[in-house]
């Protein structure tokens, strides 16, 4: 008898029924008369069976474009390919998102696209030693229809309130009825309903997982390289714009890459060191994972630093129960005017006042060109 391949998360059950009677279930012949093997789907959704590994990152398109003669690299044709590659790699995870366009209005600068040095993706790609999503510890609710923000039984709401109720003395989810983050709830981790929950897609606690809905463009700036700008419409305060996607690396790998990136003057590393992940009484933040958007990422890798930012990063959990691996979700923290540049603070200082600058010994500083009235004059990169 040949070997029976058991697919991940598909259980196999032996039964003594005569398979010729038919059971209505999917059956695999065991090769033994009177014994059938029935397969059934585990409650774990198929999206979780596999996850992206950094070592599998696609690179053929970038390699091909980079091998073209320089006149092509500066052509509108290559720009159209860049925009199409963005749409193609993201149309499944942000189906309601307007197309991203690329513009370079800087006089005398003939670069038509950002460098083709990365794979465009809205997903996380796990590096060596970084485990895939942990759904065994994922908590989910059994609500029917959309979750009620005043529910006494919704376990997702209870989970959310473990982090916010005491600090804010206010109950409910972090999103309002339009799916916007309440301004006084910025800085708290978001626990969205997930694929194992009973609630419907219309549940107000599902925002990040539905992807971007607002219009943004990637635009070259005079002094800061490429940046992210709002499209033709105002983007209201609290709007989700995207996750800071890329490779999810161990701290040691992130550290090693940081040393290299510092030498060529641009870095796309982001430490996952949120306050609620720290042990009480420990001064130096403990970092387990780092996100690197250099080789893989989306438009958020072009968000520049501002000392008076209009966007902020918020940790968000959807389909991974591991607290150490939140998604880095980016929201507007003020209304963003049409065609205004969108920025966040690289020091985590969300209001332009409070958060401490990184220690001199740890960071490399460059002159800041954010142009804000309260600009500190230098930024760490
Ligand atoms: C994450 S990248 C942002 C995208 C970048 N502008 C690009 O063209 O790829 C960070 C780099 O952008 C530049 N940058 C970002 N904010 C800046 C600012 N306020 N002033 C000067 N340079 C800035 C620095 O070179 C920094 O290392």
In short:
The protein has five helices and 20 strands.
Indicate the topology.
Layout: E1 10-15, E2 26-29, E3 36-41, H1 60-66, H2 70-73, H3 76-90, E4 101-103, E5 119-120, E6 124-126, H4 155-168, E7 190-191, E8 216-220, E9 226-230, E10 240-243, E11 246-250, H5 251-264, E12 269-271, E13 289-292, E14 296-297, E15 304-305, E16 311-317, E17 327-332, E18 341-344, E19 365-367, E20 378-380
Parallel strand pairs: 4-8, 5-14, 6-11, 7-16, 15-18
Antiparallel strand pairs: 1-3, 2-3, 8-9, 9-18, 10-17, 11-13, 12-13, 16-17, 19-20
Bound molecules: S-adenosylmethionine (SAM).
Order of helices and strands: EEEHHHEEEHEEEEEHEEEEEEEEE
Low-confidence stretches: 1-32, 35-42, 354-362
> How does the major sheet shape up?
5 strands, mixed
Structural class call reads alpha/beta
CATH topology of the domain at 65-134 and 206-302 and 310-354: Beta-clip-like
């Amino acid at each position: 008898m040949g070997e029976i391949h058991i697919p991940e998360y598909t259980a196999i059950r032996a039964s003594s029924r005569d398979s010729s009677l038919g059971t209505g279930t999917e059956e695999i012949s065991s090769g033994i008369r009177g014994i059938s093997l029935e397969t059934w789907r585990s409650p774990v959704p198929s999206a979780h069976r596999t996850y992206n590994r950094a070592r599998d990152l696609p690179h053929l398109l970038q390699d091909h474009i980079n091998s073209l003669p320089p006149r092509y690299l500066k052509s509108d044709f290559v720009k159209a390919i860049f925009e199409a590659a963005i749409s193609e790699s993201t149309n499944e995870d942000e189906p309601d998102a307007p197309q991203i366009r690329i513009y370079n209005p800087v006089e005398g600068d003939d670069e038509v696209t950002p460098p083709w040095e990365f794979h465009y993706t809205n997903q996380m790609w796990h590096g060596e030693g970084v485990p895939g999503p942990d759904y065994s510890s994922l908590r989910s609710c059994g609500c029917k229809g959309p979750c009620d923000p005043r529910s006494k039984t919704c376990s997702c709401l209870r989970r959310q309130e473990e982090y916010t109720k005491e600090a804010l003395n206010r109950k409910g989810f972090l999103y309002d009825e339009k799916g916007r983050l309440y301004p006084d709830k910025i800085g708290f981790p978001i626990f969205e309903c997930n694929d194992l929950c009973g609630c419907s897609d219309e549940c107000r606690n599902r925002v990040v997982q539905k992807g971007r809905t607002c219009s943004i463009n990637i635009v070259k700036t005079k002094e800061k390289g490429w940046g992210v700008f709002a499209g033709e419409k105002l983007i209201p305060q609290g709007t989700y714009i995207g996750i800071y996607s890329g490779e999810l690396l161990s701290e040691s790998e992130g550290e090693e890459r940081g040393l290299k990136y510092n030498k060529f003057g641009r870095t796309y590393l982001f430490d996952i060191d949120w306050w609620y992940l720290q042990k009480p009484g420990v001064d130096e933040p403990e970092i387990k994972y780092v996100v690197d958007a250099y080789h893989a990422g989306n438009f958020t890798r072009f968000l520049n630093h501002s000392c008076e930012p209009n966007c902020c990063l918020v940790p968000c959990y959807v389909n991974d129960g591991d607290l150490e691996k939140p998604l880095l979700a980016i929201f507007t923290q003020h209304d963003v005017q049409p065609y205004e540049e969108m920025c966040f603070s690289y020091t985590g200082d969300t209001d332009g006042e409070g958060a401490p600058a990184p220690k001199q010994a740890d960071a490399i500083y460059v002159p800041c060109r954010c142009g804000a009235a309260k600009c500190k004059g230098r930024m760490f990169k």
